[in-house]
Amino acid sequence: MNTLVLRAEDPAALDQAAAILRQGGLVAFPTETVYGLGALGLDAVAVERIFQAKGRPHSDPVILHVAEAEGVRPLVREFPEVARRLAEAFWPGPLTLVLPKSDLVPSLVTAGRDSVAVRMPAHPVARELIGRVGAPIAAPSANLFSRTSPTTAHHVLADLEGRIDAVLDGGPADVGVESTVLDLRGAVPVVLRPGGVSREAIEAALGQPVGEFAPPSGKEDEGNAGLVSPGLLTRHYSPRAEMRLYQGPDRDVLAAMQALAGEASDPAKIGILVYAEDQDVWQRLPVKLGHLGSRYQPEEVARRLYAELRTLDASGVTLILARAMPSGGLGDAVNDRLRRAASGQVTDLTPGAA
Predict the structure, then answer these.
(1) Three-class SS of residue 168?
(2) In the chain, N or C terminus with fewer CB closer than 10 Å?
């Protein structure tokens, strides 16, 4: 299959992408979070092509994207007041809502569950494309399953060239990490995946606390049971190289990372995701650096994260070391992605940590 590269600013290219989707094909397109891999969301045959192209298990659901908030109504059995308030506050934008699904939604989209994840993206190209198709678009990230998400068209092609029909090149994604997923099926909203909208912003909009998802067994990715949301697997967003995450006091974390890198037989095979504040620490070792920007500017770190992971992978490193962001706001989403990219391999040097 020849994967077409289409210019998102060209109206004729948008028409061509929409035609491919209406015919059951696959088109990668930019959103404000990452690039998505789109198919007709209510066509199970088309959606199945997403799973085949990505190598994605059917137990991992996909999000349905709409161009206007009203487009959600046919997809769900109910759209409660809390959903309306959140849509008014954050749509279009990087917030996904989980609601009871209607009979229109194929079970393939929802991993067999009775709920569906829906969102209205903010990127003008995404909304224009959905509008031209005239139907919801199912779209997980446009990468091979479990690998680092794409924030440029080049990243999409690196994983999926020859596997999909086309990619709309709309430049780099603005946010850089996926949407926040919020479960609205219970009495208290629950954050299933932190993302582009912070917990603090959601709580301010609702005037109430929200809960946080905790897998009952700690083994949420085992077996064939359908997940309630994408982004819940222990290993996800991962580079090809092994990755380890450190958290705790700055001095202790940096010392532990330096010790491991310094003991390596070939330090050039070690990659470091480095914050601007730490760059001097790594000057004396011949390690490879992925530059994330300031640790205290989470928006910048989020934008750079996946691209720097891909750059380190391409440099030939076999181990990537990273340290956690300060918690809160978008830092929670970055830390979630780092933890999953490291397959849960977290060294916690906080005093008193187990």
Answers:
(1) strand
(2) C
Quote the CA–CA distance of 11 and 8 in Å, as a whole number. Answer: 8
Structure tokens at 238: 């991962």
User: Mutual orientation of helices 330-341 and 298-314 as an angle, nearest 10°?
Assistant: 20
Residue carrying the six token digits 């001095």: 251
Nearest to 342 by CA among 330, 329, 324: 324
**Site of tokens 């994840």:** 117
Task: List, as own/partner pairs, every contact residues 288-295 make where C-beta atoms lie below 8 angstroms and the sequence separation is at least 24, other chains included.
Answer: 288/312, 288/315, 288/317, 290/320, 295/325, 295/326
Strands 27-30 and 288-291: unpaired
Summarised one tens digit per residue, pLDDT across range 55-86 is: 999 999 999 999 999 999 999 999 999 999 99
- This model's pTM is above 0.90: yes
R_g over Cα of the chain: 20
Beta strands in 184-323 (DSSP E): 190-193, 211-212, 242-247, 270-274, 288-291, 319-323
Strand partners, 211: 190
- What is the tens place of the pLDDT at every residue in 332-346? 999 999 999 999 999
For the record, the structure tokens of 275 come out as: 């914050």
CA distance 166 to 20: 8
Q: If you ran DSSP here, which 8-state letter would residue 281 be given?
A: G
